Amino acid sequence: MRQKLIEEKRRKIRRWLSGIGIILSIGIIIYLRIFTPLWFKKLTVFSVKNIIVEPSTHSSFIKTYISIPDSANILSLNLEEIYSKIKQVYFVEDCFIEKHLPDTLFIRLKIRTPWVVVSDANNAVIMDRQGFFLPLQGNFKLWNIIGMLPGEIGRKTAEPEKLNILKEIEQWYNYYGIAGIFPLDTISIGDTDRIELKNASGCIYIRGDGIRRQMKVAKDVLSICKKNNFPFEYIDVRFEQPYVKKKLPDKDRQ
């Protein structure tokens, strides 16, 4: 009987000690979770010393724009806030941000690619394939788009239908290799039922639907004109039967 009492007492002590151990472990974990990050944040080894921006041509601007203090701790940086801020820059399509411990912030930018020039009588801007407007700069050899409103820098076009038509024109223009026969300079898209594809030698009329078929017909007609050395003023492929108007010599024009 005495032995049983002793064993029962030992079991109670073990249970009591186990409970104390569990409570202490939980307390230590909570303490570490609360105070360890605070301790790390005070360490100067985690102060931001390097900000690497790719492409490096935009490094100075981005560093100034996000304005991270010299004393900032890399563990405290909110990458979502930095991402949202960088995305507001008009020439940035997207970006990737990563912390490289202990002291380096790495930023890779995806820069908007100039696609076409959108112009009217008063203004000209560059537009990328997502429809965002960029300032006109450099000597880019881009298609000139008229009949579409050039918008504010950093804003997206308010004419998504015309944007999608331009993308489709580009797709089938490249697919059928029309550039080798008819290098395109200007697209007039003011009237989507009578879109004009122009260069110095002539014009092709298409409409904003059924573009694949029309570009295929245009390729065939252009090939015949080139083979027969037939100068044309315009080719109209909007309807079932294409129409070609011959270009008259300058002396015969009224």
What's the number of domains? 2
Question: What is the arithmetic mean of pLDDT?
Answer: 87
Unreliable stretches covering 5 or more consecutive residues? none
CATH topology of the largest domain: Rossmann fold
Helical residues, percent: 25-40%
Counted by DSSP, the helix tally is: 5
Care to describe what's here?
Helix content is 35%, strand content 23%. The protein is of the alpha/beta class and 254 residues long. The protein has two domains: 44-111, membrane protein fhac (Ubiquitin-like (UB roll), Roll); 116-252, Rossmann fold, CATH 3.40.50. A nine-stranded mixed beta sheet has the order 6-5-4-7-8-9-10-11-12, covered by helices on one side. It has a three-stranded mixed beta sheet with strand order 1-3-2, with helices on one face. Strand 11 (232-236) and strand 12 (243-246) form a beta hairpin. Helix 4 (160-175) packs across helix 5. The radius of gyration is 34 Å and the shape is elongated. The model has no long low-confidence stretch (mean pLDDT 87).
In short:
This protein is α/β, with parallel strands linked by helices. The chain is built from five helices and twelve strands. It has helices at residues 2-41, 59-66, 79-86, 160-175, 211-227, and strands at residues 50-54, 92-100, 104-111, 116-119, 124-127, 133-134, 143-146, 186-188, 195-199, 202-206, 232-236, 243-246.
Set out the fold topology.
Blueprint: H1 2-41, E1 50-54, H2 59-66, H3 79-86, E2 92-100, E3 104-111, E4 116-119, E5 124-127, E6 133-134, E7 143-146, H4 160-175, E8 186-188, E9 195-199, E10 202-206, H5 211-227, E11 232-236, E12 243-246
Helix pairs in contact: 4-5
